[in-house]
Amino acid sequence: METAQVFHPETISRKGERNAWILAGIALIVELVMIWRYGIPPIWITVLLILLLLSAILISLSNWVDRNTVLILETDGLVYRNGLRNVSMKWDQIEKLRVTPDRWGSRIHVSGANIHFNFRKLSDIEFQGKVRGQMGFPEGEAILNEIIQSSGLSLTEDNDQDRYYARP
């Protein structure tokens, strides 16, 4: 690899985030109206408000992390940043790599002595039999192959679910 390659993941639609905030806003209005009219709202409205606010916050955080994620493959190693984590590894620091299939495609776990990160290959998000979006790195397979080749890992185990790569 002569120059650094920069990769960004596909991000999911923000409609879910918008809807979560709208529902939390409606629940807040209902809570305030109940306080204004009756003094103390029923506990289930307060619990619902807290759950909806928490959901909206977590969805927003997840979307923010996805929008700030970048994976850079350089000549001497790789860099992974997502807004919450900043991981930099030389190729010889990568000890293990695991490819795990899950509900939305494949997740790749990259591990070193004291540091690790994971990313997802591109996958379709299906709902009610229709593709509603995509998530993960479109170049996920190429990224995986480059990490395996540049770090000198080889396949050590391949069972029905996971594939494990490590140093020979």
List the helices and strands and how they pair.
Elements: E1 5-7, H1 15-38, H2 43-67, E2 70-73, E3 77-81, E4 86-90, E5 96-102, E6 105-111, E7 116-120, E8 123-127, E9 130-135, H3 140-151, E10 154-158, E11 163-166
Antiparallel strand pairs: 1-2, 2-3, 3-4, 5-6, 5-11, 6-7, 8-9, 10-11
Helix pairs in contact: 1-2
Short summary:
The chain has 3 helices and 11 strands. The chain is of the alpha+beta class. The protein has one domain.
The helix-and-strand class reads: alpha+beta
Share of helix, binned: 25-40%
| Pattern of helices and strands | EHHEEEEEEEEHEE
Relative strand content: 25-35%
- Rg result: 21 Å
Stretches where pLDDT is under 50 for at least 5 consecutive residues are none
Strand order within the widest sheet? 7-6-5-11-10
Report the end-to-end length measured between terminal Cα atoms.
22 Å
Mean pLDDT: 89
Overview of this protein structure:
The structure is a single chain. The chain is of the alpha+beta class and 168 residues long. It has one domain (1-168). The protein is built from three helices and eleven strands; from the N terminus they run βααββββββββαββ. The strands form three sheets. A five-stranded antiparallel β-sheet has the order 7-6-5-11-10, covered by helices on one side. The protein has a four-stranded antiparallel β-sheet with strand order 1-2-3-4, covered by helices on one side. It has a two-stranded antiparallel ribbon with strand order 8-9. The longest helix has 25 residues, at 43-67. It is elongated and about 70 Å long. The two termini are 22 Å apart. The mean pLDDT is 89.
